[in-house]
Input
Amino acid sequence: MRTQKGFTLIELIAVIVIMGFISIFAGSMFNLGARGALSSRQAEESGQKGQIALTRIAAELRDVNGGPGASNAPTVTSTAIAYTSSNAQLTGARILTYDAAGKRITLSIAGTAYTLIDGVSSCTMSANTTYTPTFTVTFGLSDVSGSFSITVKPRNIITPPIIS
Output
C-alpha cells in the first residue's frame, strides 16, 4: 500500500482561516500605529504654528506707541487691538484681530490683512492700561487641547507719574 503525502482540504482551509485572523490583527495594529503617528505629527505642527503666532504677536505688541492718556493710545476690545508701533520697521496703523467666522487671527497693516494663524477655536484679547500697560492674548486651536497665551509689556511706554 502506498502512502500519499500532502495536506487534506480541511487542513488547508484551517490554515487559511488562521492566517486570515492573524493578518486582520496585524493590519489593525499597523493602522492604529499609523493613526497615532499622524495625530502626533498634526499636534506638533499645530503647536509650532501657535508658538510662531505668539512670537509675532509679542514682537508686534512690544513696540506699541502711546501710554495711558496719550492721543495715540491703543484701542483694545475682546477681539481686536488697534495700535501704532514705535519700531521703524513696523510702521503705520496696525490692528491685531480675531476673526471668529474665519477662525483665524489676522494682522492688518495699512488696510491689508495677513493671517498669523488659522484654525483658531477661541480667542480673547485684553489690556491693563492703568499705569504700566500690558496686553494679554489667549487663543485655542481646534486640533490642540489647551490654549496658547502671552502677556506683553511694551518697552517704549512711559508710565505717567502718580498724582496724589
Observations:
- The radius of gyration is 29 Å.
